[in-house]
Structures are given as structure tokens and as C-alpha cells.
């Protein structure tokens, strides 16, 4: 198992797409969490997020600011990573090569998921590491007191962020296996994450009570509730406190396990050709 994890990690590290996704995630996170809001504050520009003010950009908000993008745009990048890791094996025809070396499909699949979950953790930590100097520079530029979150708050934020990132990554792996490829899996995953969830939340839920209740069981709204409980701004896309933080964490963990189990069942039972 250790050899499989080492091999999967080496494959993931050497894949240029992995680093491209990480660079995009960090750029989007810093730009839309710190640079653009601070530019609007410094220029006195009004807008839908103008009421957040400078306090929302300071170091004590690091946890909420770092994980606020995971329900939607950072989650979409994690989903793409999962699709590439699992669906790419079909596109490149490498499942046959891998399973010739070890016919135990579930062991190979478990190693791939462990590697993806470690990559999700590294991505979340990188977002925190990128946000910390950005918030520090803003505080110093505005001559504000620098107060960092406590260790327990940081650990809780990284843990919750990892849980959400791992869920989206494993969902991407499931879609790659279910659809045996990359293009359709990425397309359908992004349509759900970026379009369907927003349509349900913004259009259907206000009109139909059963939709409003049903979305409390969906992965995206629970991810949004979890980050909202940890301080993410309610004006961030996908962030809304529909359920409590404990319930949201339990539902997200349940989806993570369910996606992993379903992907393993499909890979184990179906022909890989």
C-alpha cells in the first residue's frame, strides 16, 4: 500500500496540471479575498461587498477568508483534480498497466484516494499560507493591530477546509470512474457546482419550500454552512448558514465516505476497458 501511495504521489507531483490548478487556486483566493476588496476600500468604491470594510481583511479573519471559497470556486478546482487523477487513467489507457502490476483494484483505488486527500490538505494549507501575508500587509499598511487566530481556530479551519476539499476531490474521482474519462466528468461536475447549486439556492429555494428543505441535505449547501460557522463572509458565493456547523460537518463527511465507496464499487465491478 505504501508503494502505491508513493507512486501515486510521484505521478501527481510530476503532472503539470496539478501545479496549474494550485496556482489558479492561490491566485483566485488572494485576488478576490484580499486584493480587489482592499482596492475597493482604498479607493472608496461602493459595491455589494463594501459594507464588509477593512476589518474583514485583517489577520484575525484568516480562517473564514481562507476557506470561504471552498464551497464553489476552490471546490471546482479540487473536483477537476480528482477527475484528472481517476478519469485520466481511462483517457491515457493506463489502468491496464497499473492493474497488471497489482490486480487488487481496491488497493490501487485506496492509494489514489489517500494521495488525493493529502493533495487536498496541501492545497488548503497553501491557501492559508497565501492569505496570511496578504492580510498582514493590509494590516501594516493601514496601521491596524495584528491579531492572529488561535491555534485551535487555525486547526479547526484547516480541518474543515480539508474535509470540504477532500469531498469535492473524491467526487471528481467518482465522476471520472463513472464516466470513464475526463471531459464529460469535468463538464457535468462544474455544471452542478457552479450552476445547478446556485439556481437551486437563488431561484428554486425562495419559491418552493420543499426545495429549500431538500438543499439542506446537499453537499454544496452543507459545505457553505460549515465555512459560515467558521467565519466565512455570508456575501461569499455559496456561503450561507442553512444548518449548524456540526450537522454540516457530519453531512460533508458522509458524502466523502459515500463518494469514495461508490467509486470503489464501480471500479471493482466494471470492466476498465
Automatic annotation (TrEMBL):
Q: Does the record bear Nucleotide-binding in its keywords?
A: no
Q: Cite the entry's keywords alphabetically.
A: Membrane, Transmembrane, Transmembrane helix
Q: Which residues cross the membrane?
A: 20-41, 67-92, 113-140, 160-179, 186-208, 248-267
Q: What is this protein called?
A: ABC-type transport system involved in multi-copper enzyme maturation permease subunit
Q: Which organism is it from?
A: Actinoplanes digitatis
Organismal lineage: Bacteria, Bacillati, Actinomycetota, Actinomycetes, Micromonosporales
